[in-house]
Specification:
Strand content: under 5%
Mean pLDDT: 91
Distance between the termini: 24 Å
Number of helices: 2
Number of strands: 0
Largest sheet: none
Structural class: mainly alpha
Helix content: over 70%
Radius of gyration: 22 Å
Order of helices and strands: HH
Low-confidence stretches: none
Length: about 100
């Protein structure tokens, strides 16, 4: 008993590109959030608010940068998988066409 699986490699590649794009946007957001919290820390006058904003800036920025990088890496891997699938599909279609 055989199974047939159809994959729209162009659609998979498109979604991979979207993941890469969103990863880039998250990376930009991480920088903006870090700058905003840094401004709050600077305006806090060195008290508890300043310290909390400074710690939050570091943690949130690092976390978002990591998630952005992972999302972009997943997008690139998805695009690569789509390309490899299309390649295999082309090779197998050529064999059956003979």
């Amino acid at each position: 008993m055989g199974y047939v699986v159809q994959v729209d490699s162009a659609r998979v590649a498109t979604h991979g590109a979207e993941l890469v794009r969103v990863g880039g946007e998250l990376d930009e957001l991480a920088g903006a959030l870090s700058r905003a919290l840094g401004a709050v820390a600077g305006a806090g006058g060195g008290g508890d608010l300043s310290e909390a904003a400074s710690v939050a800036a570091t943690r949130w920025s690092a976390g978002l940068h990591a998630v952005a990088g992972q999302g972009a890496a997943l997008g690139r891997a998805t695009q690569e998988a789509a390309a490899r699938y299309a390649e295999v599909e082309t090779l197998h279609t050529a064999v059956w066409a003979r």
